[in-house]
Every structure is written in structure tokens, then in C-alpha cells.
Amino acid sequence: MQAFNYAKPASLSDAARAAGAADAKLLAGGQSLLGAMKLGLAAPAALVDLGGLADLKGISVSGGVVKIGAMTPHAAVAASKEVAQAIPALAALASGIGDRQVRNRGTIGGSLANNDPSADYPAAVLALGATIHTDKRTIAADDFFKGLFQTALNDGEVITAVSFPVPEKAGWQKFKQPASRFALVGVFVAKGKGGVRVAVTGAGPGVFRAKPLEDKLAANWSGAACDGVKIDAKNLNSDLHGSAEYRAALIPVLTKRAVG
């Protein structure tokens, strides 16, 4: 691993200032970034550790909204009785991320900022129509994810929290790659004030909404509504774990299971 400067700021303003320096990277749980650095895939000149910012941790439920601080680890979301009561599918998703180390070190903010195409949280954020809060603004889920490891975040912008509106119904299903536990395909479905949303992770170069399934479920919220729905395999991932056609076939199957 190459040499780098390290800072652990005590305030959000200091963190944002340090993150704005040339070639600096924010460090949340480090489960993706540190691994990439060890492999030589990332070589930041400086790391800005957010671990000392207590204000970025915690979970609250109020006014039909679940708000999760960016530095809240996956294990805390999975164990939260408040999350389990308000959005059971979100707690279930968090409980199935990676292994115990990843769940206890990895954070929701870090996962979203990294935007791995097979990460779980992006599917929940997009399906639930969540809002990403930063130190500068709020970003709607539909505007946040821009492509492979790309988001709407500007250089030095820090995610502070994520707000999830509580849906009428929601479900999550993941067909995981057994070694990495990343989603070969993962589907999060939600029905709420904004209608029906179906978000897919793992199948393409980034999280996306499955419009054909949304249309069917909007007309009939039942697993049977997913039968016979065809998903276009064009632009889906194809690798040694599964072809694009295989992933396309999995999407309506997992959606049906998520609906229950």
C-alpha cells in the first residue's frame, strides 16, 4: 500500500474542508476503499476518517420517515427495532450485507458514496424513494445514482444521513454470489404514496428501476402479477457467475418472492 496522509476531523466542517483537498478520499467503514488501496486500484494522497463524527451516527423514526445517519453501520440498522417495525425489508436487507466484519464496520453512507453496482443499499434507497442528505444539500434517490461507481456527489461533499419514507408495503430478495455475498441480482419492491417502485441491483452497471414490473404491480400487487414479465437482457452484466439472460430471468422471479 502506498503512503498517504491521514486526518480524523472532529467536526463536519473540518471533514468537508479536508475532503476538498486534492486527491483526498473520505473514509467511512473502509470495507471497500481499503481493499482497493491494498490491491493498488486506488491511491489517494490523503484519507479523511469520519469515524470521530458522532453526529453522523444514529437512527430515528418520526412522521412516517426513517432517518439513518451516514456513519451508522449495517449491523445497527439490522438490529434496530424501530427500523424492523417501520420498514422490515430494510432491516432484512442490512442483515444480509457481507459478513459480520462488513456489517459491523461498513456504513450506509460509505456504501452509497461508493455505489458498487452489486451493493444492496442502493436498491432500497431507489425503491423507497429515499432522500440523501449531505453537508450542502438534499438529493433525491432518482437523481443520486449516475452509473458505475458514480454518484451525484461533488468533490468534498459529505453524506450526513439518509431519509426513507415508510411505505405501505415493501420486500427484498437477493440471489447472492456465495463467496462475496454481493448480489448477483437483488430486487427491492415498495408500494407507497409515490406508487410502486421496483429497484434492481447486481444485474447491470448500476442500480435501476424495472418499469415493466412496476406497471404490473401497480395494477395488481401480487406475486402472480410478475408471471410472464420479460426483462430485456441488453446492457445487463454477463460474467462467469451468470449471463445477462440469466440475470434478466432472475429479476421477475425475485420480484415475485419480494412481493410475497
3D architecture notes:
The chain is of the alpha+beta class. It contains eleven helices and 14 strands. The protein has helices spanning 12-19, 33-38, 74-79, 81-86, 88-95, 100-105, 108-114, 121-127, 141-144, 211-219, 244-259; strands at residues 5-7, 24-27, 46-49, 59-62, 65-69, 131-134, 138-140, 145-147, 150-151, 159-165, 169-176, 183-192, 195-201, 208-209. A hairpin with a 2-residue loop joins strand 8 and strand 9 (150-151). The protein is globular and about 55 Å long. The chain starts with a strand and ends with a helix.
What distinguishing features does this structure have?
260 residues, Enolase-like, domain 1, four-stranded antiparallel beta sheet, globular
Quick structural overview:
By secondary structure, this protein is of the alpha+beta class.
Broad shape: globular
Q: What's the CATH architecture of the domain at 169-259?
A: 2-Layer Sandwich
Low-confidence stretches: none
For the sheet with most strands, the description reads: 5 strands, antiparallel
Estimated share of beta-strand residues: 25-35%
**Rg, please?**
18 Å
CATH-derived topology of the domain at 169-259: Enolase-like, domain 1
User: Can you count the helices?
Assistant: 11
Order of H and E elements: EHEHEEEHHHHHHEEHEEEEEEEHH
Average pLDDT figure: 95
Helix content: 25-40%
Which sequence of strands runs across the widest sheet? 4-5-10-6-7
Task: Kindly report how far apart the N and C termini lie.
Answer: 46 Å
CATH class label of the domain at 169-259? Alpha Beta
Instruction: Give the structural class.
Output: alpha+beta
The total strand number stands at 14
